[in-house]
Q: What sequence folds into this?
């Protein structure tokens, strides 16, 4: 019997500190569950991964029985539980509720389950109301959840400047925050600021994190709520002005805004060409395995270079590959290797295409069925014994793999490789055609810190964009 258990808790805290999840799992296994599916998510969510997996297994008729500790483990919504019960009943799955044994197939059991479902949703809505009231009181007291860099919380959970000493610099965190504001105004980009504060003070900020930090209204001395818009939630921001000591003045806010706007204008264009170049997405760093991004020089030649994306990242994500390799050099080397290795690719193609096996499975299944019937007769008649031996020999013959070459695909792929082995073909393509053509053959192009380019190729079986 295929018996599944389902366990759920709403938060990670319940799972770890209160051990509620382990208790459920232990009870389910003791009750006979051979496999337990687990979710750590609110019961009001219909996007629970393991819960939906359980429903899918039921719909595929792979479940005989489901065990849960309480009915509210299935969900905190009457509609969700009702739909789940309909799926269980329609696929003849038995539901065991350890804390309230009911038979969902009986009218009384169905009524009991719907009552428990309503109670579960009532408790959920009551808890949600309490949380909303608590959050409203929290905001009325001007309390803050997570203070931004440079600030801390006092005994009333309100923001106050962080005057603790930073060990490496000897400055307070509030002083370091002021210094970071000055750096944002002085340096060319936020990326330069991130690199500098990590190198000098081991303070880790991503570019997007630094941008969000400098836009935080707490730095202006205000305590604000609902500033960031969330999808599906249309609530007006609540801003309490001048609640604590400000880190930046209104004039500094305007200067920062102008600097961020200038940076945005500098790095963007009306028509983005990101990823619109030959070998885009195929060039990788051989040291860290990360992608490489294209950078265009400011010189009038507009030379294109490739560099590892992880080189500029701080800490453990940093890659030592600082080499800027010209994109045209990478493309030229890749094409040269493809032309050179074309004979080996054709040879490998012939070997690969000849390993396809064709077995007459339907005929074997039919003969196996006839063989089982004849063996069931348990007859000593020589004709029947001879017929059984003949069928066994036929099955053995049909079961042997037969090699078959797909001549059409093989010849088409060989023709493409032969065309690609000619340097004049590549010279005739513009960048857009070159991008499509290289994608036919290239699996990956590795570039190391010395600028060595190492392409690897794939066989063009499925694509057909190249034409002679």
A:
């Amino acid at each position: 019997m295929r018996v599944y258990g389902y366990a759920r808790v709403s938060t990670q805290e319940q799972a770890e500190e209160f051990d509620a999840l382990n208790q459920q799992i232990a009870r389910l296994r003791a009750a006979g569950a051979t496999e337990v599916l687990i979710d750590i998510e609110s019961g009001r969510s219909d996007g629970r991964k393991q819960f939906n997996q359980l429903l899918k297994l039921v719909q595929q008729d792979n479940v005989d029985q489901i065990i849960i500790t309480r009915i509210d483990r299935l969900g905190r919504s009457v509609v969700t539980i009702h739909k789940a019960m309909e799926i269980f009943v329609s696929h003849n799955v038995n539901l065991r509720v350890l804390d309230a044994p009911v038979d969902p197939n009986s009218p009384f059991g169905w009524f009991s389950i719907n009552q428990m479902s309503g109670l579960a949703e009532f408790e959920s809505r009551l808890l949600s109301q309490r949380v909303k009231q608590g959050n409203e009181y929290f905001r009325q007291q001007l309390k803050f959840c997570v203070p931004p860099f440079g600030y801390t919380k006092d005994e009333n959970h309100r923001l106050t400047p962080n005057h603790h000493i930073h060990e490496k610099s000897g400055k307070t965190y509030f002083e370091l925050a002021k210094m970071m504001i000055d750096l944002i105004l002085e340096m060319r980009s936020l990326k330069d600021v991130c690199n500098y504060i990590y190198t000098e003070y081991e303070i880790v900020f991503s570019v997007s994190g630094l941008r969000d930090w400098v836009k935080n209204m707490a730095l202006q001395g205000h305590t604000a709520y609902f500033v960031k818009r969330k999808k599906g939630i249309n609530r007006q921001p609540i801003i309490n002005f001048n609640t604590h000591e400000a880190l930046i003045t209104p004039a500094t806010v305007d200067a920062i805004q102008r600097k961020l706007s200038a940076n945005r204008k500098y790095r963007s264009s009306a028509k983005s060409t990101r990823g619109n170049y030959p070998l885009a997405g195929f060039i990788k760093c051989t040291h860290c395995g990360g992608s490489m991004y294209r950078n265009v020089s400011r010189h009038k030649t507009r030379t294109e270079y490739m560099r590892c994306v992880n080189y500029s990242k701080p800490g453990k994500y940093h890659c030592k590959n600082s080499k800027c390799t010209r994109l045209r050099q990478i493309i030229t080397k890749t094409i040269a290797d493809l032309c050179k290795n074309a004979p080996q690719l054709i040879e490998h193609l012939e070997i690969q295409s000849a390993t396809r096996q064709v077995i007459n499975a339907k005929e074997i299944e039919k003969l196996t069925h006839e063989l089982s019937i004849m063996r069931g007769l348990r007859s000593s008649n020589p004709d029947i014994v001879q017929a059984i031996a003949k069928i066994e020999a036929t099955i053995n013959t049909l079961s042997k793999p037969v090699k078959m070459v797909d001549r059409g695909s093989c010849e088409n792929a060989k023709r493409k490789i032969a065309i690609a082995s000619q340097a004049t073909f590549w010279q005739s393509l513009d960048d857009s055609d070159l991008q499509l053509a290289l994608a036919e053959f290239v699996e990956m192009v590795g570039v190391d810190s010395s600028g060595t380019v190492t392409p690897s190729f794939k066989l063009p079986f499925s694509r057909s964009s190249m034409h002679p």
In short: Residues 333-457 form one domain.
